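stage 2 :: seqdesign
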């Protein structure tokens, strides 16, 4: 372990001479540091007139990893304890969260899976493969019930119609085709875009669908027959993600300009200020009640949940080791599943509004954000030394059985501490 005039304490591998983890930050020059006898803790001191205890091992990432073998390309809730899962190596089926295994027949696709969609009411799923074919399966039996003809080009997205009797497929080249299940025959004419596309969503009513294109527009189409263009909404960059509100009155989009936005279906007007991310917004998801929106991105390592009316954050951001490509939730919003860019799925058990908040939450927000409300409800800055004292208090307090306890511990790791100062 070493100290430095740059206010840091650094941990090193004695054999490779490589730094381990992120630097540990003092408020002033760090002067000395020693290990505890078991090497699990470091004690350091410096010109800031304070001594610090550091854990040599970083806290484990929060979120319960779902032990699915293979890279997850699609995941969706069937019910609270059961989800549909498809992996890139060709497997798909229904997975039990409590038993941690597939509980129905697992299909083995003849080609690599690039995307999939699940329809809970009919118990069917559709799988898009690298050969340009979309195959339809019965989830309970694992029997293939039909397929489409092969199409040129990669498949960007697919979504079931509201009744589950057909599926819309977006091809990267800019076309959307509507396929009947199980016959695999095309319904109506193709929807054609001028550029490549990445996003597709079907309205809850089944009468409309929305597409996101690299020409910086989101398009809304009549899905009842002729695929007539209803309107289009201009964005500043390509549209990467789309989600309808459960009542079909609003639509959320994620964009390459690092923002997610909510739009009124009737007026086409943006609702409130955009949600700002640290990278492209490639995952947006309304919860079933429609009162909250989950937002994430492939370059942003946090997933946030916002009130769709006030745009306030509803709970602490969910941290990940890398960017997030997919988000889904159960009907109540108490369970959230995220998938990171490496195909790892994580389960988050979110306290509901009726549950009690952790008693340390107010101190946590002060310690991390550096702000608190005075008696007159004015924002006041919390001195750094007070923030450090709050951190020490929280980390030494009795642990609570909550997802937020692991989020708190993770956010106080040395890297987070340095970033927040």
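stage 2 :: out
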């Amino acid at each position: 372990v070493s100290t430095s005039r740059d206010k840091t304490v650094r941990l090193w591998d004695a054999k490779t001479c490589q730094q381990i983890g992120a630097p540990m930050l003092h408020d002033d020059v760090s002067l000395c540091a020693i290990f505890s006898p078991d090497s699990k803790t470091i004690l350091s001191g410096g010109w800031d007139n304070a001594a610090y205890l550091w854990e040599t091992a970083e806290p484990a990432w929060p979120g319960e990893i779902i032990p699915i073998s293979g890279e997850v390309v699609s995941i969706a809730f069937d019910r609270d304890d059961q989800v549909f899962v498809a992996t890139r190596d060709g497997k798909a089926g229904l997975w039990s969260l409590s038993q941690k295994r597939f509980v129905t027949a697992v299909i083995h696709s003849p080609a690599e899976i690039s995307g999939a969609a699940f329809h809970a009411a009919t118990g069917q799923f559709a799988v898009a493969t690298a050969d340009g074919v979309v195959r339809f399966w019965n989830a309970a039996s694992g029997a293939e019930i039909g397929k489409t003809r092969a199409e040129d080009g990669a498949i960007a997205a697919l979504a079931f119609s509201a009744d589950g009797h057909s599926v819309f497929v977006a091809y990267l080249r800019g076309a959307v085709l509507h396929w009947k299940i199980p016959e695999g025959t095309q319904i109506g004419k193709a929807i054609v875009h001028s550029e490549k596309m990445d996003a597709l969503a079907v309205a809850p009513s089944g009468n409309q669908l929305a597409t996101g294109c690299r020409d910086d527009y989101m398009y809304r189409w009549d899905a009842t027959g002729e695929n007539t263009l209803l309107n289009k909404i201009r964005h500043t960059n390509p549209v990467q993600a789309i989600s309808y509100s459960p009542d079909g009155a609003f639509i959320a989009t994620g964009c390459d300009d690092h923002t997610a936005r909510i739009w009124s279906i009737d007026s086409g007007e943006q609702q409130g200020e955009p949600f700002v991310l640290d990278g492209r917004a490639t995952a947006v998801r309304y919860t079933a009640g429609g009162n909250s929106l989950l937002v994430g991105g492939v370059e942003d390592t946090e997933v946030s949940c916002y009130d769709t009316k006030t745009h306030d954050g509803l709970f602490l951001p969910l941290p990940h080791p890398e960017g997030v490509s997919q988000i889904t939730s159960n009907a109540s919003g108490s369970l959230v599943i995220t998938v990171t860019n490496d195909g790892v799925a994580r389960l988050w058990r979110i306290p509901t509004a009726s549950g009690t908040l952790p008693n340390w939450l107010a101190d946590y927000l002060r310690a991390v954000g550096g702000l608190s409300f005075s008696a007159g409800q004015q924002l006041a800055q919390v001195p750094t030394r007070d923030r450090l004292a709050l951190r020490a208090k929280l980390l030494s307090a009795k642990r609570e059985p909550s997802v937020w306890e692991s989020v708190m511990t993770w956010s106080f790791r040395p890297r987070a501490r340095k970033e927040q100062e």
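stage 3 :: structure notes
- Residues 361-420 form one domain.
- The chain has three domains: 2-55, 64-349, 361-420.
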